[in-house]
């Protein structure tokens, strides 16, 4: 493959030498995708190269040592194609599915170039590489990956994450130490530009991860400001899971004549996720999810997506009635709590996360329906965050578009593993039959489902209808009704307030304590009971007489919808807690203490 020398100008300028402004993307037509832009026409991609090992890239030995420590042997397709081009200094626009290794495809070239620069004794007080991300969670995740692969060269490569809750004064002091790599959202980047605390005069590499979301999350003005501050001859790398009009706008601003890498999904990749759809009424959602979780028809870790924040707390309180532990993840919680929740989930502390990804419906939200509670605009669950070993993605509420569905189910079946996606769909004739548990977003479920099926069929996916034998689960219906009656609107509001207050305390007041005592952080739980409703102890146990004649398997007709989860590492804290349950605290118990058990009474 012949390569061209890098262009002198990396930005598209008009006749007045001013960067072209970003145009708002026009909405696309189609069921379920009313306000989402169409995908771009695909440009020819470069021919794939045969690379059997990371050593073929000619990377620094310290970098190869970190790669070997992580157990990585053969690079993925996007890494095979992107890493050589990035090392040559070419602009890249890479489109690959979630979990394909896009992050490592730009991290390794950045570290390698910095090491080469330090080896040639070229030093500068400016930032070498800037990584832009749409959310704080993704910024923290990428920072950890950088830290992992710079383990053997920490003195030569310094990384700084600006997408934290630290004050501007603290961040300015950290920038004064001249980090080599800065990771931030566009808003946090522009916050330091007027004060000149962030020096981009000698910037060499710019990476925009999840490029299609950077503009979708409302960073248009920040991106325009950032373009004016960039120097010439900046190598730009854009990574995205989809090619949409937002990516085209960023490509015109940051790149010129980029190489487009379009890595299609193979049928083998598609078969790793089994997709099912269950058509049911609104109250039957709660009935089915109770049966699925309580009877363990699906084994392993589950991410449950719901429509909004209220919905997440309603489902959590519903689970509490049956003694089912779960934790909530939404935009109202402090960023430190969200990051710790994801980390604990990846370490198998929690098995169920109820996620409300509200940024995916921000385009359809009416002004009069917006809540007064301030939400974090730089928050996203369905994109960017690396959830590990997820057995099932359960769409309790169907998303509003086929693209959102694709990104949601991308949380499972990652890195060569298998997974399962199960979605509840409300037919039009059953909408609003149960008004107290109905959400407006489910009104067009059938239209959205048709769009999803059409989109998935084009990619080689097959979405199967799964019909539960409702006669077998009717015996559980009265329990479901008792639990739903206890979860009132007042209870949901109180639980929402209590959870937010508790998480604020954990996030702020205990932050310094956790920095000094990191082992205590693993004992902090996010799945504790809110206790906003009256708990009915008898609902926690499932008596045998409620089970069908064929047992648990008879609920789904013996077809085996259950997914045997991955055998991850067991959490030591949870294992020790179970082992010591019921034992007296404080070392010597009452039964073993002779002073306490001694009796002076004569027999």
Summarize the structure.
Residues 569-584 have a biased composition (Basic residues). With 603 residues, this protein is α/β, with parallel strands linked by helices.
Question: How are the SSEs ordered, and which strands pair?
Answer:
Layout: H1 61-69, H2 77-88, E1 92-95, H3 102-119, E2 129-132, H4 136-149, E3 159-161, H5 168-175, E4 181-184, H6 186-192, E5 205-208, H7 211-216, H8 220-229, E6 235-240, H9 245-254, E7 259-262, H10 267-270, E8 273-279, H11 282-294, E9 301-306, H12 309-320, E10 327-329, H13 335-346, E11 352-356, E12 390-395, H14 402-409, E13 419-425, H15 445-458, E14 463-465, H16 470-473, H17 477-486, H18 489-508, H19 511-516, H20 572-579, H21 594-597
Parallel strand pairs: 1-6, 1-7, 2-4, 2-5, 3-4, 5-6, 8-13, 8-14, 9-11, 9-12, 10-11, 12-13
Function: ATP-binding RNA helicase involved in the biogenesis of 60S ribosomal subunits and is required for the normal formation of 25S and 5.8S rRNAs.
GO cellular component, one term: cytosol
Enzyme class: hydrolase
